[in-house]
Every structure is written in structure tokens, then in C-alpha cells.
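thread: overnight batch results

M.L. [08:02]
morning all. the overnight job finished for the chain we discussed friday. pasting input first so we're all looking at the same thing
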Amino acid sequence: MAAPIAYSLIATDLDGTLLRGDDTLSDRSLAALARVADAGAQHLVVTGRPAPRVRPLLDDLGATGLAVCGQGAQVYDAGADRLLWSITLDRELAETALGKIEAEVGQVYAAVDQDGVDGLTLIEPGYLMPHPTLPAVRVDRRDELWGEPISKVLLRHPHLSDDELATTARSVVGSLATVTMSGPGTVELQPCGITKATGLALAAEHLGLRPADTIAFGDMPNDIPMFDWAAHGVAMANAHPELKSVADEVTLSSRGGRAAPGGAPARGGGGGHTRGVSVSVRERGGARGCGAAAPPPPHDCWAGLLSTGR
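M.L. [08:03]
and the structure it wrote out:
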């Protein structure tokens, strides 16, 4: 039997993975994170939430290191309360993409996450926040969404499912933006080529770690690029079928209290262990481009803040 693989970087999604529905961590999850710290490994939050919506959770955890926020568009330093790296979504491109989507499916309701450590979430009339604990500011007209730089656009349709909306959006948006689905009621547009893998790769480089050092946990299709990048991807039992289909392993449900190595057998043939559970470590592929996982950008951006958009 192969020797166990020791992972130095534990990358976890938040909603549907590490967090319960009320934004709390179970005692078992807290104990698992404590064991990670005791073992000398790094825990890295990799979430679709923007930095301002992640900061209170990191404060509760006593975390002072890095976090990847905004679907990979932000690398946040919790200890310094600043963005080490950020990229914005061009607002003219976002408006154009939104128009193309509405030409296909009719009216959608939109929201935006503003860039920056104090950025607001703005929602237009008709948009309902899928997560009631997250604060948002309602505006009177859509054009008010575009007043400040944004990291992403969030979309909801009154009748289409998330899968249907995301599929249609990908078919018409092209290179205007990356389309991703990150949770119930959450289809998003983000800068073209930017995914969770982008921010994860940058944060790992800053920490001196590699894909081979990394195990990732998630529950939605927006976690696929992170699984592609990491050596080992673990889907929650409550995960979307698309993520389960590419995962190396399926573990317990987030509703059952933990996101930690273990659980259901690996998908595919052997290649290592995680805490004594056989897992497969294999190459994952798939389409590249703005509608799917995209490779991280060149890693020359730590010197300052990269910002695009009008």
C-alpha cells in the first residue's frame, strides 16, 4: 500500500462545505481545523463571498492569514485587513453580457459585489438574496449597480433553474466574462478567465506551496477549477452532481457537521491516502475558457494591486 500523502495546504469552500446553514461551524469542524493547525498545515478559505462578507467569519475563527474571496478575484490578508491582489470586472462588459443573457431568457434580476475591503453588495429591484445572513443594499435602478468598480455580477431568473440559467449564460457570454454557479440561487459573472483556481494559485505561491501540497474541499461547480488545480479534490455528500463527477473522493455532508478528510470511497483507482482513507490522485481535464475553468494568470502581480474596468 502506498505511503500516506501529507497535505500542507487545506483549501475549503465556505457555504455548503465548512459552514452550516446558519453560518456557524460545528464543534467537529472546529476540532478538525485545530488538528490542521497542530499538524503545521495551512488552512485557506477559498470562497465566492467577497472579502467584506468573509472578514467577520475569519475574525470569529481568529484567522490572520490569507483568504481567497470573490470566486478567486481577491486575495485577502486578514491580519492586515487589505487586499494583496484584486481584479475587477469591466462594467461595460458586464452590462453587455447581461443584455445578451436577457435577450435569450427574458428578464433576470441582478446584484453586484463592489471591489475593495469595504465594498457593498448592491441589489436591484426584484433580486432576492439567496443567503439571508449576508447584508445588501437595495438600489432603485439597475444603472446604479455600475457606479463603483465591481468584482462580479450575481444573477437570478424568476423561473429558470440555476443550471438552466448558467448553461444559457455560458452559451451567449463568450469571452465577456466567466460564468459560474456557486450555490442555490447563485449564478455569477466574473472577470474572464478568473476562477477559484486563480486566487488559490496566487495564495499558495505566496505561502511557498504547490498544487501537490494541496487538498481542496467544496460542494458546487465553481469549485471544479480548484479541484483541477489541487492534488486532491473532496466533494461534500451534499455537493452538486457536476462536482461529484470530478471529485477524487466524497465525504460527509456539511449538514452533518464537518468538512474533513474521510467519508465515502474515492472515485477511480488508487494513488494515495488521506488519514488512512484510500483516494485517487489523477489528472482532471475539461474545457478551458471563460465559460469553464481557466488557468491562473501569470504570477507577477504581487507587487501591487491589479485592477481593470472603468
